[in-house]
Write a structure and sequence with these properties.
Blueprint (H helix, E strand, L loop, with lengths): L4 E2 H29 L4 H18 L5 H15 L4 H16 L4 E2 L1 H19 L9 H15 L4 H17 L24 H15 L3 H4 L3 H16 L10 E6 L2 H13 L9 E5 L10 H11 L5 E5 L3 H11 L6 E3 L4 H13 L4 H11 L6
Parallel strand pairs: 3-4, 3-5, 5-6
Antiparallel strand pairs: 1-2
Helix pairs in contact: 1-2, 1-3, 1-8, 1-10, 2-3, 3-4, 4-5, 5-6, 6-7, 6-8, 7-8, 11-14, 14-15
The structure holds adenosine-5'-diphosphate and magnesium ion.
Magnesium ion (MG) binds next to loops.
Length: 370
Amino acid sequence: MTVTLDLAFFQRFLDRATRVVVAEAARLTELDAAIGDADHGANLKRGFTSAADALAADPPATPGALLTAVGAHLTNTVGGASGPLYGTVLRRMGKILGEDPVVEPATLGRALAAAVASVRRLGDSAPGDKTMVDALQPAADAYAEALGGGDVTAALDAAAHAARAGAEATIPLRARRGRASYLGERSIGHQDPGATSSALLVTALYEATDPALCAVAPEAEAKAEAEAAAATGAEAERPAGRVGVVLVSHSREVAESTAALARALVGTGDPAPVAPAGGLPDGAIGTNAELVRRAVKDADRGAGVVVLCDMGSAVLTVRTLLAEKELEGTHIADAPFVEGAVAAVVTASAGGDLEAVLAATADARTYRKL
Ligand code: ADP
Ligand code: MG
C-alpha cells in the first residue's frame, strides 16, 4: 500500500495520538508515580486535547503547519518537562517539513533525525539516560535504515517497533536526566514514562498510514477509559516515617516559598515533612539557631533530617549545631538551595531513605543550565 504523507495523514496522526494519550494517561501517570511526580499522563492529556481542540477550530493548511502548531501548544500547556521537549520535537519537524503540501518520505526521515537532535540538545540527554531519547533515537535510526527499501509504511513500522523496544529497554537503566535522576539507583527497575509516551506517539505515526488502524471500537475505548479511571483511583502506598527536610535561608519568605514550591512539585499531594527556618525571629534577614533547632524537631519523623542552607551564616549556623552534636540524625546537604530542596522533598516523599535523599541533593549540584 502506498501512503501519501499529506495533511490528512498528519491529521490522522494527531487524532490517533490524542486518543491514545487520553486512553493511556493513567498508565503514564502511574509510571511517573514510580520515578517522578505522577503527572506525565495528565500533562500529555492536557496538552494533546488542547492542541486537537485548537486545531479543529483553526485548521492548518500544511503538514508542517500542523506539527508546528501542535508543538507550540504542547510547550504552552503541558506544564512538565515533557512539554518543552515534545514541543521542540514537533516544531523542529514542522520546520523541516516546511510548506510542502505532500511530504517526501526522505524529508520525514530528516525531520525525525533533526527533532531527536534538538531534544537531545535541549535536554542535554543521550541514549542510555533513561528518557524519551531512548525511544526517539532508535525510532529515527530505524526509520532511516528501513526507508532504504523505499516503503514508508515499512519504515514507520520499523520506527514504532524500535521505539517500543527502546522504551522497554529503559527498565534496567538508572535515570541520569529529569526528575527520575533524583532517585539515583532507585530509578532502576521502572520503565521511563517519557520513553513510554514516545513509543505511543511513534506508533501513532505508523498507525496514521492506515485509516482502519486509526479506528478504535467504541467498546474498547470505553473499557480503556474505565480501567484508566480505576487505576487513578487506586491509593498509592505511602511508607511511614519519611525523611524530613529543613530549609535554612537568610530570608523567611525564601525559606517558606521554597518549601511551598518543593511541596507543590511532589504532585501526589502527599509531601514528606518540610520545615522552613528562614530569617530571624522578628522577620529580619539572618540566621537563627533556635529557629533551626525548632524546624529540625518539626521535620523529624525518626527517619533522619536533611538540611538545605542558602549560604554564609545559614551554612555556618547549621554546621556549628552539627559539630556540637545538637542535631541528632541530621545531615547537611552540599547542594544549591532551590534545586536541592526540590530534589530532597521529591525523593523523601517517594519514600527514599536518608542515603537516597542525600544522593538526590548531591545530584542537584550537577544540573547544568548551559
Ligand atoms: P516532569 O518530569 O517535569 O514532571 P513529565 O512528567 O511530563 O515532566 O515528563 C517526564 C519525562 O520527561 C521523563 O520520563 C523523561 O522521559 C522526559 N525528560 C525529563 N527530563 C528530560 C531531559 N533532560 N531530556 C530528555 N527527556 C527528559
Ligand atoms: Mg512528571
